[in-house]
Structure formats: C-alpha cells, structure tokens
Amino acid sequence: MTDWGILARAIHVVAVVVWIGGVWLVTTVLLPAMKLKRPEEWIGEFDAIEQRFAPQVRIAAVLVLLSGLYMLYAYDLWDRFTEPRYWWMHLMVGVWLLFAALLFVIEPLIIRSTVHRSDAVAPAAVLTRMLWMHRAMLALSLLAIFAAVAGGHGLF
C-alpha cells in the first residue's frame, strides 16, 4: 500500500530543490555575470532566461504548496502553527508566501515592465536591485530549509 504522505514529502523536497537551486544559480551566477554586460545585452538575456525559468519555478512553487498542504492534512500537523517551538513552520509558510507574491504578482506585473522601462533610464540600478532582492530571498530560503530540516528532526 502506498504511503501518500511519503510521496508528498518526496515531491516537496524535489520541488524545493528545483526552486531554490534555480534561485541559487540566478543569484550567484547569472545576475552577477549580467552586471558585466551592457544593458542592451543583459536585458535580452534576462528575458530569455526568465521565459524559461519562471514557468519551472511556478510549477515547483505550486508543487511545494500542494505537497505541504497534503502533509499537514495527512499527518494532522495543523496544531503546530499554534506552538512557538514550531516557529520554523511559520518561516516556511512565510517564505513561500513571499516567493508566491514575487512569482505570481510582482515579477509579471512590476519587475518585467520595470526592466524594460528602465533600460533607457538606469538599467544598472535595476539590475543591482534585482540582485539584492535575490540575495535576500535566497538567504531567507536557505534559513527556512535549514530550520525546517533541523526542526523536523528535533534540533529545536
């Protein structure tokens, strides 16, 4: 008999790896490399990468949500949100909500138009802001992953 909770956990971990691994690559490799290019070069590259990467990340984020909700339901973990010692559960949800706002609202409605509107104004400043935003999100994500693994295994 299949334990759907184990399957949900495996899907959850794989989706987090795809999602945050991609954020790591963008933050530590791609955006810093784009800072070395002229705006007319990096803006086109940014668009090309974003068109391929964003759908993958959105799928991963939805899988993280669905598998996380399933685990909460299957293992009846809802009460953990009422106990301070499970602070890392709140952190995971908070990071997911922040990323979801970025992925599904801010990026398509604000960031994409800002990059194109600013290419004649201050593209270097836009790229610097994007890099710092990615660094902050990556740091929060890594903290959430560390806390969730450590907390889930009894460290906290």
Describe this structure in words.
- This protein has 156 residues and is mostly helical.
- It has one domain.
- It has four helices and no strands.
- The protein has helices at residues 4-34, 39-74, 87-118, 123-152.
- α1 (4-34) packs antiparallel against α4 and α3 (87-118) packs antiparallel against α4 (123-152).
- The mean pLDDT is 90.
Give a nutshell description of this structure.
The chain is mainly α and 156 residues long. It contains four helices and no strands. It has one domain (4-152).
List keywords for this structure.
about 160 residues, mainly alpha, single chain
Would you spell out the secondary-structure blueprint of this structure?
Blueprint: H1 4-34, H2 39-74, H3 87-118, H4 123-152
